[in-house]
Amino acid sequence: MAMEHKVGRQLFDEVMVPCYSPMQIVPVKGQGARVWDQDDREYIDFAGGIAVSCLGHCHPVMVNALKEQADKLWHLSNVMTNEPALRLAQKLTEHSFAEKVFFANSGAEANEAALKLARRYAADKFGPEKSEIISFQQGFHGRTFFTVTVGGQAAYSDGFGPKPGDVTHLVYNDLSTLAEHMSERTCAVMMEPLQGEGGIISPTQEFIQGVRELCDKHNALLIFDEVQTGNGRTGDFYAYQGLGVTPDILSTAKSLGGGFPIGAMLTTSELAVHLKVGTHGSTYGGNPLACAVAEAVVDEVTKPEVLDGVKQREQWFREGLAQINAKYPIFDEVRGKGLLLGAALNEEWQGRARDILLAAGEEGLMVLVAGANVVRFTPSLVIDKADIDEGMARLERAIAKLHQ
């Protein structure tokens, strides 16, 4: 056999578009909550591929589902349907408020479908002037031109020419401003039921409840972007279930496939009829391979012991971070819910989240950031205590070095 062509990090700079600046390590295999790089160096994974690897790496239920489906059928297109897509759609409706499902390949695509449905519904039912979409500053909804415009971070949407219109950004958790601004022109309010990229910001109960009431009052649809919060991440299958507020449309992706690309928009039958034949579509949406894997993930994640386990692991994370902070005061508070957690840096450490990410990497720990001042943790939902303890020991060593 010919020697395999050695690929390393330097090849990235030669062949890849430079919109990413990846770390120097190149992971080659993973098992559970651990990953190994080209030099066989081991890392504990507290990043989970940015809230994607909800069952860790190479979980047997996912591997088996993929292998089984790989021998059967890979792709058809939506000229026909397929069994894995139907089974997965049925399970998503059983585990949520939804009655209807649209499959896509990513969170951005699921959000694109959600926004197009909201606009189409408003136009059909109330007329073309009901088109305003309200979203929130620091929100994140994907990178397509429509979703990035709705997202509330101008740095991501500026510089690409004229933006899709009639999008308003307000302050998250500020109910009075929203109440003042909303009108019969408002078509939809889109929000994360816990802001992820924006710094791990939980909604107040008053706010989330109030948004729902204002949407009802103005005949506007409430869209929850649960791309990051969904599929068990907060300890409920979807975050809205722990908030007691039901949206009209919900987008899901990331953990849905546990690492296999898939997204879905969930909604009610009443709304779904407005996306009639020809109004929207996706070549790969509902792909049998993706749906087979996602079905295995949903079956596993919805087990009560897995969802309860998320709450237990949140406690272990909070305790570990508190112990580190007692020795090296660096964090102001730990925000978030379940295993979508953000440790916010104190005054002295402002702007240094990425330094911690890099220092952790040198100690063999993968973490994330949410902005310049928050270290983000989105590990596997089934990570075991030993891996959490070892990861915390590595994080402590990294922070100790930075303290010196």
Looking at CATH, which topology of the largest domain would you report?
Aspartate Aminotransferase, domain 2
**What's the CATH first level of the largest domain?**
Alpha Beta
- Main sheet characteristics: 7 strands, mixed
Known CATH architecture of the largest domain: 3-Layer(aba) Sandwich
Q: Count of DSSP helices?
A: 15
CATH superfamily of the largest domain: Type I PLP-dependent aspartate aminotransferase-like (Major domain)
Radius of gyration: 21 Å
Write the layout of secondary structure elements.
Layout lengths: L8 H7 L11 E5 L2 E4 L4 E4 L2 H4 L8 H11 L12 H12 L5 E5 L2 H20 L5 E5 L8 H6 L3 H4 L9 E4 L4 H7 L4 E6 L13 H13 L3 E5 L14 H4 L5 E4 L10 E5 L1 H4 L15 H14 L2 H24 L3 E7 L2 E6 L7 H10 L2 E2 L1 E2 L4 E4 L7 H19 L1
Parallel strand pairs: 3-13, 5-6, 5-7, 7-8, 8-9
Antiparallel strand pairs: 1-2, 2-3, 4-10, 9-10, 11-12, 12-15, 14-15
Helix pairs in contact: 3-12, 4-12, 13-15, 14-15
Pfam families: Aminotran_3 (PF00202)
Main location: cytoplasm
EC number: 2.6.1.11
